[in-house]
Structure formats: structure tokens, C-alpha cells
Amino acid sequence: MDDGDAGLLHPERAGHAWPRLLLLRGLGGIYLVAFWVLVRQLRPLIGVHGLTPAGSYLDRVARALGGRWEGFLRLPSLFWGSSADGVMLAAAWLGVVLALAVMAGVDHALVLAVLWGLYLSFVHVGQLWLGYGWEYLLLESGFLAIFLGRLRTLRSAGEAPAGTAVVVWLYRWLVFRLMFGAGLIKLRGDPCWRELTCLDWHYETQPNPHPLSWAWHHLPHGVHAAGVVFNHLVELVVPFMLLGPRPARAAGFVLLVAFQLLLISSGNL
What we know:
Distance between the termini: 50 Å
Strand content: under 5%
Structural class: mainly alpha
Radius of gyration: 22 Å
Largest sheet: none
Low-confidence stretches: 1-13
Oligomer: single chain
């Protein structure tokens, strides 16, 4: 059987090898940032003498739920065993090492599962510091990535494993829910999103503006109104393109990337 026959029998392997490779290495980079932040900040935030100690939080959860086992079932975390600073730091450093390995091409399912379990453990004791939507987005993305991992070899051998197409569709569904939900929340929230005026003051009131935010803020109202329209297009229309045929998905990808670049250029979200 030649390569063409293999592609006909397993189109998901032939067509998703490179996207899978880029996705996993990109996810490894995100994990690296997340665990490196924990290495630098967990002591003052959730350490034994931190602002909101993880151990004290787990004790309160155990009392509220009737025991530590009940607490573990509600909030699974490795740190029910010990939340000492040294234990959490070791877990964070292990996350850094494994994330670097994934970036280097190690894509075994077990490695991806350990990364996910480590980060889940931190999110469940992170309290307000790890209570943002992007933490759970990373967890869901990381969970799906486990099923893109290999079970026999540590590194990619060129071909995507069987079942990759199903996971790719689950990722599309994840992006659809994320973007479409964001669009609906805006329309149901502040009237400025319907009046096309939100961007008139967004750039100076966002949590973390950067030097270019000043320039964005001083653009004419017409540009701001067009920006709101573009936001609604990307969040309410483009998600459906991701579920369509390949040309529609490609166009949707370009629009999503352009949207993210605009966000990055206008503030530190």
C-alpha cells in the first residue's frame, strides 16, 4: 500500500498531522507560561504564609463538605495530601519541565495527562488568583490534548494517531462555544454593545492598557463603532464558519487571528 492509499483509508491522519503538531507544541508553550508564573508567585499567593494559603482553604472546604475525602471528590487536587510550599513548588517545576518537553516534541498521552492533572490541582487551590475563565479554557484544551497524545512512542512519528479527527472537531466546538458565548454575553449585557459605543472608552478603562492603548483611544468614533461591528461579526458569525466546509473554516481562522492580533495591539487582556 502506498502513501496515497494510506491517506484514503485514514484521512484524519493524513490531514491533521501538522495541525496536531502545532497545537500540541503551542499548548506546551501555554503550559510553560502558566507553570512558570506559579513557580514565581505561588509562595506569596497560596503558600503557607501567603495571602490566601492553599492549606487553610482546603481545611475550610473539608469542614464545609464533611471531610477531606468529600473535599477531594468536589475539588480534586494533589495538594490534599500536602500543600507545603516545597511540595507545590516541586509540582510547578515538574510542570515547567514537562511543558518544555512537549514543546520539544514529546507528545505521549501520559505526559499530557500529568500536565493537565498538575494544573487542575493548582486551579482547585488557587482561589481568586486562578479563578479566571482562561484557567478553565487551558484545562479544557489540555484535557482534549490528552487524546491527541501517543501511547507507544514519546515523540511524533509524522502521522497523527487514529481518532485525531474527532478531537479536532471537539476543539472546533470549544472555539465555537467560547466565541459565540462571548458575543451573546455582550449583546445581553451593557447597552453600549448594541449602541456601538463601548469602544469609545474601553481602551482607557480596560484592566491592563499598554502604550498603544492611548493611540487606540484617540481614534474617531466611527472607527470605534466599526470595531464593535467587527467584534460582533467575529464572535457571532465567524464561529459558525468553523463548523462549515474547509474554505469557510480557513476564512474563519484568518478572521479569528486578525481579531486576536487587534486585541493584543490594543491592550494586555
